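sanity check this record:

:::
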Amino acid sequence: MAIADDALARLAHETVDHRFKGLPPDAEGLTVGALTAQRRSLFTGGFTTPVLALSTEALDHNLALMERWSAEHGLAFAPHGKTSMAPRLFERQLAHGAWGITAAVPAQVRVYRAFGVRRIFLANQVVDAAALRWLARELAADPDFRVVTYVDSVRGVELMDAALRDAGAGRPLDVVVELGALGGRTGVRTEADATQVADAVAAAETLRLVGVAGYEAEIPGADETLVRAWLHRLTGLAIGFDAAGRFAGVEEIVVSAGGSAWFDTVAEVFGELPSLSAPVLKLLRSGAYVTHDDGQYRRKTPFVRRPDEGTLLPAFRLWAQCVSRPEPGRAYLNAGKRDAPYDLDLPEVQTIRSARDGSLRPARAMTITGLADQHAFVSLPADDPLEVGDWVGLGVSHPCTTFDKWQLIPVAEADGTVTDYLRTFF
Protein backbone atom coordinates (compact mmCIF):
# COMPACT_ATOMS: atom_id res chain seq x y z
CA MET A 1 0.00 0.00 0.00
CA ALA A 2 2.43 2.66 -1.26
CA ILE A 3 1.95 6.31 -0.49
CA ALA A 4 1.65 8.76 -3.40
CA ASP A 5 5.14 9.48 -4.74
CA ASP A 6 4.13 12.77 -6.35
CA ALA A 7 2.71 14.13 -3.10
CA LEU A 8 5.87 13.19 -1.23
CA ALA A 9 8.01 14.73 -3.94
CA ARG A 10 6.23 18.04 -3.48
CA LEU A 11 7.41 18.14 0.14
CA ALA A 12 11.00 18.37 -1.09
CA HIS A 13 10.09 21.50 -3.10
CA GLU A 14 8.75 23.40 -0.09
CA THR A 15 10.73 26.52 0.71
CA VAL A 16 12.63 26.80 3.99
CA ASP A 17 11.70 30.02 5.77
CA HIS A 18 10.62 31.59 9.07
CA ARG A 19 7.81 29.03 9.57
CA PHE A 20 10.24 26.33 10.62
CA LYS A 21 11.96 26.96 13.94
CA GLY A 22 15.44 25.66 14.61
CA LEU A 23 16.50 25.52 10.96
CA PRO A 24 19.54 27.49 9.77
CA PRO A 25 18.71 31.15 9.02
CA ASP A 26 21.12 31.06 6.08
CA ALA A 27 19.00 28.31 4.51
CA GLU A 28 16.20 30.81 3.93
CA GLY A 29 14.88 30.39 0.39
CA LEU A 30 16.34 26.95 -0.21
CA THR A 31 14.01 24.08 -0.88
CA VAL A 32 13.83 21.29 1.68
CA GLY A 33 15.38 19.00 -0.91
CA ALA A 34 18.31 21.33 -1.49
CA LEU A 35 18.91 21.71 2.23
CA THR A 36 18.76 17.93 2.67
CA ALA A 37 21.36 17.47 -0.05
CA GLN A 38 23.80 19.67 1.88
CA ARG A 39 23.94 17.11 4.73
CA ARG A 40 24.66 19.80 7.29
CA SER A 41 25.78 19.10 10.82
CA LEU A 42 23.12 19.63 13.44
CA PHE A 43 25.78 21.17 15.69
CA THR A 44 27.94 23.23 13.31
CA GLY A 45 25.68 23.69 10.30
CA GLY A 46 23.86 26.82 11.43
CA PHE A 47 20.89 25.26 13.23
CA THR A 48 19.54 27.43 16.03
CA THR A 49 18.42 26.24 19.43
CA PRO A 50 16.08 24.92 20.53
CA VAL A 51 15.93 22.31 17.79
CA LEU A 52 14.24 18.92 17.86
CA ALA A 53 16.04 16.12 16.04
CA LEU A 54 15.22 12.50 15.32
CA SER A 55 17.76 9.70 15.27
CA THR A 56 18.16 7.94 11.94
CA GLU A 57 19.41 4.80 13.66
CA ALA A 58 16.58 4.66 16.22
CA LEU A 59 13.89 5.17 13.58
CA ASP A 60 15.34 2.39 11.42
CA HIS A 61 15.52 0.07 14.41
CA ASN A 62 11.99 0.71 15.67
CA LEU A 63 10.38 0.36 12.25
CA ALA A 64 12.11 -2.97 11.64
CA LEU A 65 11.37 -4.28 15.13
CA MET A 66 7.60 -3.71 14.99
CA GLU A 67 7.40 -5.09 11.46
CA ARG A 68 9.06 -8.30 12.65
CA TRP A 69 7.15 -8.47 15.95
CA SER A 70 3.73 -8.00 14.32
CA ALA A 71 4.45 -10.65 11.71
CA GLU A 72 5.69 -13.14 14.30
CA HIS A 73 2.48 -12.67 16.32
CA GLY A 74 0.10 -12.95 13.37
CA LEU A 75 -1.09 -9.35 13.56
CA ALA A 76 -1.83 -6.85 10.84
CA PHE A 77 -0.61 -3.37 11.73
CA ALA A 78 -2.23 0.04 11.23
CA PRO A 79 -0.02 2.39 13.27
CA HIS A 80 -1.76 5.45 14.63
CA GLY A 81 -0.80 8.36 12.40
CA LYS A 82 -1.91 11.02 14.90
CA THR A 83 1.36 10.39 16.72
CA SER A 84 3.48 12.07 14.06
CA MET A 85 1.19 13.35 11.28
CA ALA A 86 4.31 12.99 9.14
CA PRO A 87 3.69 11.52 5.66
CA ARG A 88 7.35 10.58 5.27
CA LEU A 89 6.96 8.36 8.32
CA PHE A 90 3.69 6.95 6.95
CA GLU A 91 5.62 6.00 3.83
CA ARG A 92 8.21 4.16 5.86
CA GLN A 93 5.61 2.45 8.05
CA LEU A 94 3.75 1.20 4.98
CA ALA A 95 7.01 0.05 3.41
CA HIS A 96 7.63 -1.91 6.62
CA GLY A 97 4.47 -3.91 6.12
CA ALA A 98 1.73 -1.77 7.69
CA TRP A 99 -1.79 -2.69 6.50
CA GLY A 100 -2.76 0.98 6.61
CA ILE A 101 -2.69 4.01 8.91
CA THR A 102 -5.03 4.76 11.82
CA ALA A 103 -6.65 8.18 12.26
CA ALA A 104 -8.55 9.74 15.14
CA VAL A 105 -10.58 12.42 13.34
CA PRO A 106 -11.66 13.16 9.75
CA ALA A 107 -9.18 16.04 9.44
CA GLN A 108 -6.38 13.50 9.80
CA VAL A 109 -8.01 11.28 7.18
CA ARG A 110 -7.91 14.24 4.78
CA VAL A 111 -4.15 14.55 5.32
CA TYR A 112 -3.67 10.84 4.72
CA ARG A 113 -5.72 10.96 1.54
CA ALA A 114 -3.77 13.97 0.28
CA PHE A 115 -0.74 11.68 0.38
CA GLY A 116 -2.48 8.71 -1.20
CA VAL A 117 -3.03 6.42 1.79
CA ARG A 118 -5.63 3.87 0.67
CA ARG A 119 -6.36 1.93 3.86
CA ILE A 120 -7.42 3.96 6.88
CA PHE A 121 -8.82 2.85 10.22
CA LEU A 122 -10.74 5.77 11.73
CA ALA A 123 -10.86 5.09 15.46
CA ASN A 124 -13.77 7.34 16.29
CA GLN A 125 -17.49 7.60 15.60
CA VAL A 126 -18.02 10.27 12.94
CA VAL A 127 -21.26 12.23 13.29
CA ASP A 128 -20.18 15.36 11.41
CA ALA A 129 -22.39 15.50 8.31
CA ALA A 130 -19.86 17.50 6.28
CA ALA A 131 -17.10 15.00 7.06
CA LEU A 132 -19.35 12.07 6.18
CA ARG A 133 -20.29 13.64 2.85
CA TRP A 134 -16.58 14.08 2.11
CA LEU A 135 -15.91 10.43 3.00
CA ALA A 136 -18.71 9.37 0.67
CA ARG A 137 -17.12 11.34 -2.17
CA GLU A 138 -13.70 9.80 -1.48
CA LEU A 139 -15.16 6.31 -1.54
CA ALA A 140 -16.98 7.02 -4.78
CA ALA A 141 -13.92 8.53 -6.45
CA ASP A 142 -11.45 5.75 -5.59
CA PRO A 143 -12.59 2.12 -5.68
CA ASP A 144 -9.29 1.11 -4.03
CA PHE A 145 -9.87 3.34 -1.00
CA ARG A 146 -10.98 1.54 2.14
CA VAL A 147 -11.91 3.21 5.41
CA VAL A 148 -13.22 1.50 8.53
CA THR A 149 -14.74 3.64 11.29
CA TYR A 150 -16.26 3.19 14.74
CA VAL A 151 -19.92 3.18 15.76
CA ASP A 152 -20.92 3.18 19.43
CA SER A 153 -24.53 4.40 19.59
CA VAL A 154 -27.85 4.03 17.81
CA ARG A 155 -28.07 7.80 17.51
CA GLY A 156 -24.62 7.93 15.95
CA VAL A 157 -25.67 5.33 13.39
CA GLU A 158 -28.79 7.38 12.58
CA LEU A 159 -26.73 10.52 12.01
CA MET A 160 -24.20 8.67 9.86
CA ASP A 161 -26.91 7.05 7.76
CA ALA A 162 -28.73 10.35 7.22
CA ALA A 163 -25.60 12.18 6.09
CA LEU A 164 -24.49 9.37 3.78
CA ARG A 165 -27.94 9.07 2.22
CA ASP A 166 -27.95 12.83 1.71
CA ALA A 167 -24.59 12.49 -0.05
CA GLY A 168 -25.96 9.80 -2.33
CA ALA A 169 -23.37 7.33 -1.08
CA GLY A 170 -22.72 4.42 -3.39
CA ARG A 171 -20.87 1.62 -1.65
CA PRO A 172 -21.53 1.40 2.08
CA LEU A 173 -19.16 2.68 4.73
CA ASP A 174 -17.51 -0.12 6.70
CA VAL A 175 -17.99 0.18 10.47
CA VAL A 176 -16.96 -1.70 13.61
CA VAL A 177 -18.80 -1.60 16.91
CA GLU A 178 -16.57 -0.01 19.52
CA LEU A 179 -16.44 -1.68 22.92
CA GLY A 180 -15.57 0.59 25.82
CA ALA A 181 -15.40 0.14 29.58
CA LEU A 182 -17.43 1.56 32.44
CA GLY A 183 -15.93 4.90 33.44
CA GLY A 184 -13.62 4.85 30.42
CA ARG A 185 -13.77 6.77 27.20
CA THR A 186 -16.04 6.10 24.20
CA GLY A 187 -17.56 2.77 23.20
CA VAL A 188 -20.58 0.73 24.24
CA ARG A 189 -20.55 -0.44 27.84
CA THR A 190 -22.43 -3.72 27.54
CA GLU A 191 -22.92 -6.54 25.06
CA ALA A 192 -26.62 -5.65 24.97
CA ASP A 193 -25.72 -2.10 23.91
CA ALA A 194 -23.41 -3.54 21.24
CA THR A 195 -26.24 -5.66 19.88
CA GLN A 196 -28.54 -2.64 19.64
CA VAL A 197 -25.90 -0.71 17.71
CA ALA A 198 -25.30 -3.69 15.41
CA ASP A 199 -29.05 -3.91 14.77
CA ALA A 200 -29.11 -0.22 13.83
CA VAL A 201 -26.22 -0.76 11.40
CA ALA A 202 -28.04 -3.69 9.80
CA ALA A 203 -31.04 -1.43 9.18
CA ALA A 204 -28.92 1.27 7.51
CA GLU A 205 -28.20 0.62 3.83
CA THR A 206 -25.30 3.10 3.87
CA LEU A 207 -23.33 1.17 6.51
CA ARG A 208 -21.82 -2.31 6.65
CA LEU A 209 -20.81 -4.04 9.88
CA VAL A 210 -17.37 -5.63 9.45
CA GLY A 211 -16.12 -6.18 13.00
CA VAL A 212 -15.46 -4.95 16.50
CA ALA A 213 -12.77 -2.78 18.04
CA GLY A 214 -11.72 -0.71 21.04
CA TYR A 215 -8.83 0.78 22.97
CA GLU A 216 -7.76 -1.11 26.05
CA ALA A 217 -5.57 1.61 27.57
CA GLU A 218 -8.64 3.68 28.48
CA ILE A 219 -9.90 1.06 30.93
CA PRO A 220 -9.88 2.81 34.33
CA GLY A 221 -7.01 1.41 36.40
CA ALA A 222 -5.83 -0.68 33.46
CA ASP A 223 -3.55 -3.55 34.42
CA GLU A 224 -2.86 -6.86 32.74
CA THR A 225 -5.78 -8.62 34.42
CA LEU A 226 -8.31 -5.94 33.47
CA VAL A 227 -6.92 -5.58 29.96
CA ARG A 228 -6.99 -9.31 29.35
CA ALA A 229 -10.59 -9.59 30.61
CA TRP A 230 -11.67 -6.69 28.39
CA LEU A 231 -9.94 -8.22 25.36
CA HIS A 232 -11.81 -11.47 25.98
CA ARG A 233 -15.04 -9.48 25.98
CA LEU A 234 -14.01 -7.93 22.66
CA THR A 235 -13.18 -11.23 20.99
CA GLY A 236 -16.31 -12.77 22.52
CA LEU A 237 -18.35 -10.01 20.93
CA ALA A 238 -16.84 -10.85 17.52
CA ILE A 239 -17.56 -14.56 18.00
CA GLY A 240 -21.15 -13.86 19.06
CA PHE A 241 -21.81 -11.47 16.18
CA ASP A 242 -20.42 -14.00 13.74
CA ALA A 243 -22.53 -16.84 15.15
CA ALA A 244 -25.61 -14.62 14.72
CA GLY A 245 -24.77 -14.07 11.05
CA ARG A 246 -24.01 -10.36 11.44
CA PHE A 247 -20.90 -10.57 9.26
CA ALA A 248 -22.58 -12.42 6.39
CA GLY A 249 -21.06 -11.42 3.07
CA VAL A 250 -18.00 -9.58 4.38
CA GLU A 251 -14.64 -10.53 2.90
CA GLU A 252 -12.85 -10.33 6.26
CA ILE A 253 -13.86 -9.72 9.85
CA VAL A 254 -11.99 -6.90 11.59
CA VAL A 255 -11.00 -7.28 15.25
CA SER A 256 -8.85 -4.37 16.38
CA ALA A 257 -7.23 -3.03 19.55
CA GLY A 258 -3.81 -2.16 20.79
CA GLY A 259 -2.11 1.04 21.84
CA SER A 260 1.56 1.16 22.74
CA ALA A 261 1.30 -0.23 26.29
CA TRP A 262 -0.49 -3.58 25.99
CA PHE A 263 0.12 -4.90 22.51
CA ASP A 264 1.68 -8.09 23.92
CA THR A 265 -1.57 -8.95 25.70
CA VAL A 266 -3.54 -8.03 22.58
CA ALA A 267 -1.44 -10.48 20.58
CA GLU A 268 -2.00 -13.27 23.10
CA VAL A 269 -5.78 -12.88 23.29
CA PHE A 270 -6.20 -12.31 19.56
CA GLY A 271 -4.13 -15.45 19.01
CA GLU A 272 -6.83 -17.43 20.85
CA LEU A 273 -9.57 -16.43 18.39
CA PRO A 274 -11.15 -19.47 16.72
CA SER A 275 -11.87 -19.59 13.00
CA LEU A 276 -14.87 -17.49 12.03
CA SER A 277 -17.04 -17.43 8.92
CA ALA A 278 -14.50 -15.23 7.09
CA PRO A 279 -10.78 -14.57 7.55
CA VAL A 280 -10.08 -12.36 10.58
CA LEU A 281 -8.02 -9.20 10.23
CA LYS A 282 -6.37 -8.91 13.67
CA LEU A 283 -5.43 -5.27 13.56
CA LEU A 284 -2.98 -3.63 15.97
CA ARG A 285 -2.88 0.18 16.11
CA SER A 286 0.17 1.16 18.19
CA GLY A 287 1.65 4.49 17.10
CA ALA A 288 4.21 5.70 19.64
CA TYR A 289 6.63 2.87 18.86
CA VAL A 290 8.08 4.67 15.85
CA THR A 291 9.98 7.18 17.99
CA HIS A 292 9.43 5.66 21.44
CA ASP A 293 10.43 8.14 24.19
CA ASP A 294 12.34 8.73 27.42
CA GLY A 295 9.36 8.66 29.78
CA GLN A 296 5.83 7.32 29.44
CA TYR A 297 6.51 4.62 26.86
CA ARG A 298 9.94 3.74 28.17
CA ARG A 299 8.11 2.66 31.31
CA LYS A 300 5.03 1.13 29.69
CA THR A 301 6.20 -0.59 26.53
CA PRO A 302 5.55 -4.36 26.58
CA PHE A 303 9.22 -4.86 25.76
CA VAL A 304 9.96 -3.96 29.38
CA ARG A 305 8.02 -7.07 30.35
CA ARG A 306 9.40 -9.11 27.46
CA PRO A 307 12.98 -7.95 26.81
CA ASP A 308 13.76 -11.17 24.96
CA GLU A 309 11.43 -10.01 22.15
CA GLY A 310 13.23 -6.75 21.47
CA THR A 311 13.89 -3.22 22.69
CA LEU A 312 12.55 0.03 21.29
CA LEU A 313 14.95 2.98 21.12
CA PRO A 314 14.10 6.61 21.93
CA ALA A 315 14.48 8.59 18.71
CA PHE A 316 13.85 12.13 19.98
CA ARG A 317 16.55 14.49 21.17
CA LEU A 318 15.64 18.09 21.91
CA TRP A 319 18.73 20.27 21.86
CA ALA A 320 18.63 23.50 23.86
CA GLN A 321 21.34 25.84 25.07
CA CYS A 322 22.20 27.01 28.53
CA VAL A 323 21.41 30.71 28.48
CA SER A 324 21.83 31.58 32.15
CA ARG A 325 23.75 30.41 35.26
CA PRO A 326 22.64 33.11 37.70
CA GLU A 327 23.41 31.23 40.92
CA PRO A 328 25.03 27.99 42.09
CA GLY A 329 22.88 24.94 41.53
CA ARG A 330 20.66 26.56 38.92
CA ALA A 331 20.73 26.83 35.15
CA TYR A 332 18.23 27.95 32.54
CA LEU A 333 17.81 26.56 29.04
CA ASN A 334 16.15 28.19 26.05
CA ALA A 335 13.52 25.48 25.50
CA GLY A 336 10.16 25.44 27.19
CA LYS A 337 6.51 24.52 26.84
CA ARG A 338 6.42 25.70 23.24
CA ASP A 339 9.13 23.19 22.35
CA ALA A 340 8.82 20.17 24.66
CA PRO A 341 5.91 18.03 25.88
CA TYR A 342 4.99 18.36 29.54
CA ASP A 343 1.59 16.64 29.76
CA LEU A 344 3.05 13.39 31.13
CA ASP A 345 6.63 14.01 32.26
CA LEU A 346 9.08 16.88 32.13
CA PRO A 347 12.06 16.45 29.79
CA GLU A 348 15.17 14.85 31.24
CA VAL A 349 18.71 16.14 30.80
CA GLN A 350 20.89 13.51 29.15
CA THR A 351 23.90 14.96 27.34
CA ILE A 352 26.03 18.09 27.40
CA ARG A 353 27.91 19.33 24.33
CA SER A 354 30.59 21.87 25.14
CA ALA A 355 30.37 25.18 23.29
CA ARG A 356 34.15 25.48 23.65
CA ASP A 357 35.33 22.32 21.91
CA GLY A 358 32.27 20.28 20.89
CA SER A 359 33.04 17.47 23.33
CA LEU A 360 30.19 15.41 24.72
CA ARG A 361 29.67 14.28 28.28
CA PRO A 362 26.76 12.63 30.07
CA ALA A 363 24.68 14.89 32.27
CA ARG A 364 25.37 14.42 36.00
CA ALA A 365 22.51 14.78 38.48
CA MET A 366 20.73 17.42 36.42
CA THR A 367 16.94 17.66 36.77
CA ILE A 368 14.45 19.87 35.00
CA THR A 369 12.17 21.15 37.73
CA GLY A 370 9.80 23.25 35.62
CA LEU A 371 9.06 24.78 32.24
CA ALA A 372 8.02 28.27 31.26
CA ASP A 373 6.93 29.08 27.73
CA GLN A 374 10.52 29.39 26.48
CA HIS A 375 12.70 28.29 29.39
CA ALA A 376 13.54 25.10 31.23
CA PHE A 377 14.59 25.38 34.88
CA VAL A 378 17.46 23.04 35.73
CA SER A 379 18.67 21.96 39.14
CA LEU A 380 22.26 20.71 39.11
CA PRO A 381 25.26 20.30 41.41
CA ALA A 382 26.79 23.62 42.35
CA ASP A 383 30.17 22.52 41.01
CA ASP A 384 28.90 21.25 37.64
CA PRO A 385 30.92 22.81 34.81
CA LEU A 386 27.88 23.57 32.62
CA GLU A 387 28.50 26.93 30.96
CA VAL A 388 26.36 29.48 29.23
CA GLY A 389 26.37 28.52 25.56
CA ASP A 390 26.71 24.78 26.08
CA TRP A 391 24.24 22.62 24.17
CA VAL A 392 22.06 20.39 26.34
CA GLY A 393 20.46 17.26 24.90
CA LEU A 394 17.05 16.46 26.39
CA GLY A 395 15.02 13.28 26.31
CA VAL A 396 11.28 13.83 26.11
CA SER A 397 8.16 11.96 27.16
CA HIS A 398 5.08 11.37 24.96
CA PRO A 399 5.63 11.46 21.19
CA CYS A 400 2.08 12.62 20.45
CA THR A 401 2.66 15.99 22.10
CA THR A 402 6.21 16.35 20.83
CA PHE A 403 5.60 16.15 17.10
CA ASP A 404 2.81 18.71 17.14
CA LYS A 405 5.18 21.44 18.32
CA TRP A 406 7.47 21.08 15.29
CA GLN A 407 6.55 21.50 11.62
CA LEU A 408 9.86 20.44 10.04
CA ILE A 409 12.13 18.11 12.00
CA PRO A 410 15.73 17.23 11.10
CA VAL A 411 16.60 13.54 11.03
CA ALA A 412 20.24 13.11 12.03
CA GLU A 413 22.79 10.33 12.15
CA ALA A 414 24.71 9.63 15.34
CA ASP A 415 27.49 12.07 14.38
CA GLY A 416 24.96 14.88 13.83
CA THR A 417 24.79 14.71 10.03
CA VAL A 418 21.26 15.68 8.96
CA THR A 419 20.02 13.31 6.27
CA ASP A 420 16.34 14.13 6.03
CA TYR A 421 13.55 16.41 7.26
CA LEU A 422 10.10 15.32 8.40
CA ARG A 423 7.19 17.64 7.62
CA THR A 424 4.26 17.37 10.03
CA PHE A 425 0.63 18.35 9.40
CA PHE A 426 -1.26 19.18 12.60
